[in-house]
Amino acid sequence: MNPFDIMDCSLLIRMSGLPPAYNLRELRDRIAVCGPDVLYHHFCETPLSPTFEYPDHRNDFAVWASRRLSDKILAERLGAVDPYACPSIEGLREVVLDVIDERLSEVTMIPWARPGHEFYFMEATTLVFDSGERVRALRELPEAIGRMSNGSIYFHFLEAQRRQPVGMDDFSNWIGGFGKTGAPYVEALRRIDFYFYTLRELREELVRVLEPLRGKRS
Amino acid sequence: MNIQQYEPIVGIPVIGQLRRLGERLKGLRVVHVNSTAEGGGVAEILAWMVPLMNDLGLDTRWRVISGTNEFFSVTKAIHNGLQGYSVLLKKRDWDVYQDVNRENVKALKDELEEADIVVIHDPQPAPLLELCTRRRGRWIWRCHIDASHPSRSVWKGLKPFVEKYDASIFSMCQFAQLLRHPQYLIAPSIDPLSEKNIDLDDHELDAVREQFDLNPGVPVLVQISRFDRFKDPVGVIEAYRMVKKMTPVQLVLAGGGATDDPEGKEVLDAVMEAAEGDPDIHVELLPPAANRTVNALQRIADIVVQKSTREGFGLTVTEGLWKGKPVIGGDAGGIRLQVVDYHTGFLVMTPEGAANRIRFLLHHREQCGRMGKTGRELVREYYLLTRHLREYLTLMYALVGQTTEHTVMV
Description:
The complex is a heterodimer of chains A (about 220) and B (about 400). Chain A is α+β, with helices and mostly antiparallel strands and about 220 residues long. Chain A has two domains: about 20-120, no CATH class; about 135-215, no CATH class. Chain A has ten helices and two strands, in the order βαααααβααααα. Chain A is elongated and about 65 Å long. Chain A starts with a strand and ends in an 8-residue tail after the last helix. Chain B is globular and about 70 Å long. Helices cover about 45% and strands about 15% of the residues of chain B. The longest helix of chain B has 24 residues, at about 90-115. Chain B folds into two domains: about 5-190 and about 385-400, Glycogen Phosphorylase B (Rossmann fold, 3-Layer(aba) Sandwich), CATH 3.40.50; about 200-380, Glycogen Phosphorylase B (Rossmann fold, 3-Layer(aba) Sandwich). Chain B has a six-stranded parallel beta sheet, sandwiched between helices. In chain B, strands 9-8-7-10-11-12 form a six-stranded parallel beta sheet, sandwiched between helices. By secondary structure, chain B is an alpha/beta fold. Chains A and B meet through β1, β2 and α7 of A and α2, β6, α15, α16 and β13 of B. β2 of chain A pairs parallel with β13 of chain B.
């Protein structure tokens, strides 16, 4: 079995070049034309962004709808959009636009944000680099995960969902290679509702779920 | 100063990540240029960033441009203009601005043209780029100023100097300006091992309590800031008076303030007048070097207040959160990123709002503890210098590799 190569990543956030949105209509129009990296950033890269992680909503659009537009209905609907369940970024865009269009058809007045509370569209570059560390046996994995940076957790568990095999994290992919020994752990990892964990919490949960591997021979 | 000192605070993974980035940038020649060697936020940042970058393997230098009084009057006016004040700069002022940079470039040219990365901090040295015609590296303009609503004429005058850079860095998205090059967002940070933030023992806290004549049995509210109307110190006194009607409390308003600044003097006079006759209000004009006193006051506080009506990033809020205190902050600038209702403190807009939230916290002490803990972790995760350093290194890597792709395998 090949060793597990621990990668690390760091996010570099920049302005997308789109003008900010002052109201829901503008938000909708910008989302319709923004680049895929912008959507991906505001949905999936939030755990690596240096901002407070709101426990109620895991994407920036839902947080903005709740806190800046005071539209709780829209915030709940946007907050329920799971980017990892969408087959592609274009699929995600379609779902988000559908949610906003529905809301626009319901409200009698377009909700506005106060000056200074506009939505700014951003995107990021992710630098991925090899940490040089390797995990050679199943029993070493829990301890190795416990030592991983937030960047590594993000890359191997969240970012991995977009890579081949799509929808699968790197840990499951590697553990799956151990056949029957690994199978229950792949299943346990699959059951983690990761969307509502911070990266720190996710690391703790991964270690907890994989803890019994420490005693395994492989 | 070395990066290893921070490992007990931020953990092994964070230091490991910095070391790995350092390995990949080993030997990179970086020159930072600003206009002051000490005093002010930029010099404070460079004082730790330069040695830490060197410790990680980069070849980093810090150069300071010199100038005449007239030059610094002009650049102060540019600074104020970027912050939104109405200022009038004449052609002669812009000429002085360029002439002083022309003088400085004589000594710096070779080093800047040879560097792999040049980081120019704030407007003062911005014209250096076009004076270094044989530059081979990538040039970054780092704007530390809240330029969210700049004076149009000042921005129009400065833009030609900064738009030729390869990239710029702003502290928050609200401060970024429309430019042709990529604009990166890197929030500022605090140094947990600096005099202002390092752990202090109880004896030192007791000494400061005594110095300020604070009663250890009565809750303390502390606002650390310049005596500036945008920090609303008089509003804080109003809030304190409303609270005091219901519950015993003490207030400390402390901070630097230039007595030669007519507006600062005016604000300080208004504060003294509002505080008159109340021995539980302690107004203190602190010298710039009083970092340990500031540290102690923030640690003595039951609640840290920063009731600004206008704010840059608000590093005094970061400092308060790092000391495990709930923060009552004005709903402005970067305070919004750090103070989140019921999690790390409360955002307020009026003295009444501040008073209500202070009373709530004084009567829910367990919530103060929980918020303080959340705030400290928020700072540990995002607002310590290790994150700041990581983002600079990442940016340098991206610029050297000339990449704007979404995912880059290094």
